[in-house]
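Task 17 of the worksheet. Students: predict the tertiary structure of the chain below and write it out as structure tokens. Keep your answer in the requested format; marks are given for formatting as well as content.
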Amino acid sequence: MKQLTLVILTCLSLQFSTAQINEFGLYLGGSNFIGDVGATDYIAPKQLALGAIYKWNRSPRHSYRISLIFTELEGIDKNSDDPSRQIRGLEFNNQIIELSAGVEFTFFDFNLHQGGFVSTPYLYTGISATQHDNFYLNNAGTLVKEDTSSIAWGIPMVIGFKTSITPEIILAFEVGARYTFTDEIDGSVPDAEELASRSFGNLNNDDWYTFTGVTLTYTFGKNPCYCGF
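Model answer:
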């Protein structure tokens, strides 16, 4: 994690030195989990999600983007529409830290230097790395910690809408699902191989989670030249 932080800071320092416009701000929203424990609603923010976001607007139609978001994922079988899960009655919570990097594509030109009001829908995708604690659920349905943590790699799939409030302030609303390459976030598959007998649920489906929220960013830097991009 320390090495990853150093790489991020180095990349940001390189971006700040270029003659492109930058955005930096806050993310505020909610999260919900989709897996083997709890409800399976795709968009149902329940837990607070907080973070920071940075964008380098490479052209009026695309930006490079990095975000760091903290939240707690929660699953409660009794809140599910599935009768079998309601009877089972399992539940979990898992604090996560997600680092995501990728490219944001706008539907229309989003040129902050043309003057006046600008707005556009957008799509974002890339790669995410999510740190989470490892645990399993025993026969009594009690959460047992493994005292280890893992990194879950994933793919963010985000759709949003952004608009300029002032020439320097950008407000955006977005909904983003994260498909992860792990089935361990909800404890249905323990991390330790010797606990493999504790696995349950659909082992062919990995875990998902969704962020729903807003970003408020401040723009700074020299006016970009978008020629040739």
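Marker's comment: The first strand starts at residue 21 and ends at 34. The longest helix spans residues 2-16.
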